[in-house]
Amino acid sequence: MSHKCPRRLALSTVLTPVFLCLGTWSAQAAQAPAAPAAASRAMVGDTAEQLNAVQIPDDLKAKVPAAETAYIESGHATRFVRPDVFFKRLRESSAQDITAYLAALHSAEDAVDFKPGRDKPSISMDKSAPEYNAWRTRRPEVLDPKRAPGPIQLSQYLGGRSAGGIPTFANAPVAFTPADLKAGKIEIAIVGAPLDMGTGYRDALHGPVALRAQGGTGNDMYTMINPTADLRIVDYGDIAVDNINTDRSVEHVREVVREIAEAGVIPVVVGGDHSLEYPNVAGITDVHGKGKVGVVHFDSHYDVQHNAVHLLDHGQPVYRVIMEGHVPGKNYIQVGLRARIPNVEDFNWMRDHGMKYHTMVEVEKHGWDAVMERAVAEAKAGVDKLWVSFDIDVLDPAFMPGTGTPVPGGLTMREAQPIVRRLCAENNMVGFDLVEVAPYLDTSYKTALNSNYILNACLTGIAMRKRGITEPHYLSPLSVDHNQDNYYKDKK
After folding, report:
1. CATH architecture of structural domain 150-477
2. Which is it for the CA torsion 214, 219, 222, 225, positive or negative?
3. End-to-end CA distance of the chain, in Å?
4. Nearest residue to 239 (alpha-carbon basis) of 282, 269, 281, 207
5. For the chain: N or C, fewer Cβ within 10 A?
């Protein structure tokens, strides 16, 4: 037995302007037995949707069919429409229209939920394929000419890459193996991770290519330190990814991050989309231990989304890192949030888990300098190892147009560079990632150029720490003043 939707029901209160004739619904749904309690939908780790119980207003209790009372009070009826809008609709509707309205909601709920037998969770991979793992299998060294382990310079000119040769991150030599890292006593390994399956806006896979091709690393005028001269840096190539399968890709990214860290080297990962934060942080805590690393997360988005169909994409890495215990919420600091989410429930979730967030609303109220000082102090007060995850959309689109989810009203380069430099100088850095560079979305070269300047700011900070420069917000006296008079002293 089935019940047909009596008319084409416009759910203008739900998903304007989408129109749904919400098909058929079962006799069982029509009888509306007691719906499961809201808590019964919660799965381990908050991975299922949470329903909020509602109370039927006294003036509507006589109007609501008795068989629908439990369904409404469980929160199922208001799953797709706000309670205030739902009850207003009931007040304005006849008994016949209420029956049709509730029938549509039953039908919608039945349609959106996964049903074994009706819905296939995914198309299985062919595990018998002869190249099932070829994409991630390392090339045996015996296939290549013998060589002593160590970095390899790819430029045949004394002038470095700017005078010719093959482009690399930071114009650095390349390394292929942990043995190369150890033989060269490498301190920083910059590695590309061209993952592009965790976002609906494509081209983040070209981020590593763009940063290698576009200059921006070298002397930092603010400190008069050239990190490429002070640090032993290599380009560790690109991590292999399967851009049809994010799950398989992040597993291998985690392996390579762990491999670099186990060699005593700081991994710097250039993405690729922000799904990478999950394997990056998981890989580093594989080495340093869960709960031993803090994270500063620069982003216009909160990336703590859950309840989505896909359990990992570029909007969910922080949630996975916290729920799997790699980094407790109290050691997570977010800077630059300003997108249309999080909502009230999301902010409360973040507070309940001890997260420290700094929105552009806070910046508007208190000013950037105050917020920067607060965030830097929080990073120092946490655990003694720090990973910085930098999504370029934390910057205003005027500076970073080549990214998939730009949000107006962001940081400027003059605001971003000092805080990145300070975090990397004033903390024990164990890793850094820069993600969401999508160069094909930029008709200029500014996204890649500015991204390299952010990367250089962090490398400068690490070089400062190596030199023993511990002064907060250090600036070089050589570049801060021409010193031909006492202009600033006389002004005091």
Report:
1. 3-Layer(aba) Sandwich (3.40)
2. positive
3. 87
4. 269
5. C
